[in-house]
Design brief:
single chain; alpha+beta; 21% helix
Length: 247
């Protein structure tokens, strides 16, 4: 069987999803430890995204092939009993043999969460980036609307990334205030390295008055990383949703 797992995790204590050198805990390595405990084997795992250290996920997807006797619907409970509390499996379903968590995805949605406050929130520390200066979410939303669509997003890619095609279709980009929280939501057919974090930094500059909303058009057209805002920290980034045809 080819098994699709949907899970959530708090990335604060991990060096991203992908397995790394010994002594550097990762989401994948920890999940494979649980698989070993439950299945008695350590199958190869395909994740929907690599994710950087400190990035969180509300709906991360991965798949692996398994030929044992445990039915998929029994796996979440068994795996969660062998996972730390900051990683939780929500569902396990059988998918076609050719399904791949990364390459079968047609859209991913991320949120970047800002705490716009003078004082930290101790109860959710590590799950947002705090900006103390006032942010105008209406200015940010006006700028976001100008960035939606199919464009060359080279400006919003980390310098030195080995990518030849930097065109992406940003199907959704919006900004909403929820009390002291300012939430940026971005959905696309694919994202460049650090694209959401750079978009968030650019929109934060707009919200603080540093950058006019209409200036993002020229920033985008420049195809130059130096023209955009800062790459905001990983702690505010959440993988929110992954879309697969028919699933």
């Amino acid at each position: 069987m080819n098994i699709l797992i949907r899970m959530a995790f708090l990335g604060t204590g991990y060096h991203g999803f992908q397995v790394q050198a010994p002594g550097r805990p990762t989401i994948c390595g920890t999940f494979q430890d649980a698989l070993q405990a439950v299945l008695g084997t350590r199958p190869d795992v395909k994740g929907c995204s690599r994710t950087d250290a400190g990035v969180h996920a509300r709906a991360y997807c991965l798949n692996f092939h398994y030929d044992g006797a445990i039915p998929p619907e029994k796996l979440p409970l068994a795996l969660n009993q062998n996972l730390p509390g900051d990683i939780r499996v929500h569902s396990a379903t059988e998918v076609p043999p050719t399904f791949h968590a990364r390459y079968s995805a047609v859209e991913k949605e991320y949120t970047y969460e800002l705490l716009n406050a003078a004082i930290d929130d101790p109860f959710t520390r590590g799950q947002y980036h705090r900006i103390t200066r006032p942010l105008d979410e209406n200015r940010m939303q006006a700028a976001a609307a100008l960035l939606r669509g199919t464009h060359d997003f080279a400006t919003f890619m980390n310098t030195g990334s080995p990518v030849n095609d930097t065109r992406r279709t940003l199907t959704h980009l919006s900004v909403a205030r929820r009390g002291q929280r300012v939430v940026i939501t971005a959905a696309a057919d694919g994202f460049l390295y650090n694209m959401v974090r750079i978009l968030a930094g650019t929109l934060a500059d707009v919200g603080s008055g540093k950058t006019p909303p209409k200036a993002v058009v020229d920033i985008l057209a420049a195809r130059n990383r130096q023209n955009a805002g800062p790459t905001l920290p990983a702690c505010g980034l959440f993988l929110h949703r992954v879309v697969y045809p028919g699933l």
